[in-house]
Amino acid sequence: MEFASVRIITADVDRLAAFYELVTGATASRSAPVFAELRTASGTLAIGGAATVAMLGEHAPRPGANASVILEFLVDDVDAEFARLRDELTEVVLEPTTMPWGNRSVLFRDPDGNLVNLFSRPAR
User: Fold this and answer.
1) What is the radius of gyration, based on Cα positions, of the chain?
2) In what order do the strands lie in the sheet with 104-109?
3) pLDDT tens, 39-92?
4) What is the pLDDT of residue 124?
5) Helical H runs in 29-93?
6) Under a CB-based contact definition with an 8 Å cutoff, are residues 9 and 62 in contact?
7) Which of 36, 91, 95, 103 fits a disulfide with 28 by CB distance 3.0 to 4.6 angstroms?
8) CB–CB of 34/48 below 8 Å?
């Protein structure tokens, strides 16, 4: 088995794809207007419109309803990334902070309210 991707269901694929293009620096590939993928060296972030899960009926994920998942991106310099993104962020949850276990992290919400963590590991 191979882990393929994490998919966020959204009401606005264009807005969310543009946000994650800004965060990751990757260009989203668009196989359909209701779907985008951002591929990085270590994984894929997929963004799908509600139409991509409509066949699930009442069991379909609801856009903007996530309250349990954190999307995490390993970066070289948390502070530099935060400085680059700061003016585009609407909700910063945690300013750049060194965690008790040594990682440096900044946490913010994407336009749908999903929690995003940019982090770096301590130097060895």
Assistant:
1) 15
2) 70-74, 115-120, 104-109, 91-98
3) 998 999 999 999 999 999 999 999 999 999 999 999 999 999 999 999 999 999
4) 75
5) 78-85
6) yes
7) 36
8) yes
